[in-house]
Amino acid sequence: MSIITNLNKLFDSRIRLGIMSILSVNDSVDFSTMKELLELTDGNLASHLKALESANYIQTTKQFIGRKPNTKYQISALGKRDFKEHLDALEKLIR
After folding, report:
1. What angle do CA 34, 91, 1 make, to 5 degrees?
2. Domain extent for 30
3. Are 57 and 79 in contact (CB under 8 A)?
4. Spatial strand order in the sheet of 68-75
5. Is residue 48 one of the residues assigned to a domain?
6. Can you give the pLDDT of all 95 residues of the chain as single tens digits?
7. Residue 62 · residue 49 · CB < 8 Å
8. pTM exceeds 0.70, yes or no
């Protein structure tokens, strides 16, 4: 079996890797915080979040705080599992 078999193509992007890393160590993170941490534009972050959400790797919760919309993101069980497999594969590759 190839050592790169368990590398997940969806996590190739450093931005998606960053999103998953942030979400794996936090219960949830809102859009503004994620944007600030990764230093991205709204559109760039939104497109990467959409790709991860489409793969069911993250879950979205939308609410209003006062009159302002607030979107929070959490890593799903599937996302957690596949991200761990990806990190394990990277670790094997480095060794």
Report:
1. 120
2. 9-90
3. yes
4. 29-30, 68-75, 58-65
5. yes
6. 566 777 899 998 999 999 999 999 999 999 999 999 999 999 999 999 999 999 999 999 999 989 998 999 999 999 999 999 999 999 988 88
7. no
8. yes
